[in-house]
Amino acid sequence: MLDLHGLTKTYKTGDRAVNDVSLSVPKGQIVGLIGPSGAGKSSLIRCINRLVEPTAGRITLAGTELTGLGPRALRRQRRRIGMIFQEYALVERLTVMENVLSGRLGYVSFWQSFTRRFPPADIARAYALLDRVGLLDHADKRADALSGGQRQRVGIARALAQDPELLLVDEPTASLDPKTSRQIMRLLTEICAERDLPAIVNIHDVALARQFLPRIVGLRAGQVVFDGTPADLTDTALTRIYGDEDWDAMRRAEAEDEAETREALAARDAMVLA
């Protein structure tokens, strides 16, 4: 479905963010992309839809090579790729429904998009998507009135409104608490399974990647240094990706942090109910 061959990105500073990456993502597979800060995870995702221009290599989506396309052809191909951003990238002053419908902008005329007059079928699809992500009752709310988890759900619905053939997801849980993070990851994996939709998820939380993602690719210095299942992600493999670390101590610290977060959230909920 998605094939990367020798993908490389070197910035003008001389930094090579992506270094000769080759991998394939078949239809329906969801892949977690992990690695330390600066490993090239975000650059790799942005190269795929050419928000960042690759320096070398090939990107092929369902038989169509994306590298080398001109602006008009690239706009058409980008409709096939849904993007979900870490910071949501919503238009704060617009309603939830308007933000979801913005996923259809590549399919309507300039005047339809300018006046925000979308075909009835697009509106019906947007309502169905809001129902699927649990936000149907929030359709008329402004985006800036939502919580972080709700905003991420809007971002998911907007990406799905494109009817994409591939999802690219950049740090979907970075700004969320542990409970909401699990809810978002569960929603993403369920939707991909329902639609037989391939996805690449750039994720910093190794525990979440292990829990929800059937295939994990580890990057270090722009290169693939691990590609396997969660069961294959041993301490030795983690050291190859991240460098030397006391992984048992790190897991204990993560468990303690999560327990403290759960206690804080429970205390907050108790105050609200009181």
TrEMBL record:
One example GO MF annotation:
ABC-type phosphonate transporter activity
Keyword annotations: ATP-binding, Cell membrane, Membrane, Nucleotide-binding, Plasmid, Translocase, Transport
Every ABC transporter domain range: 2-246
| SUPFAM superfamilies, per database record | P-loop containing nucleoside triphosphate hydrolases
CC annotations in GO: membrane
Q: What's this protein's name?
A: Phosphonate ABC transporter ATP-binding protein
Encoding gene (name): phnC
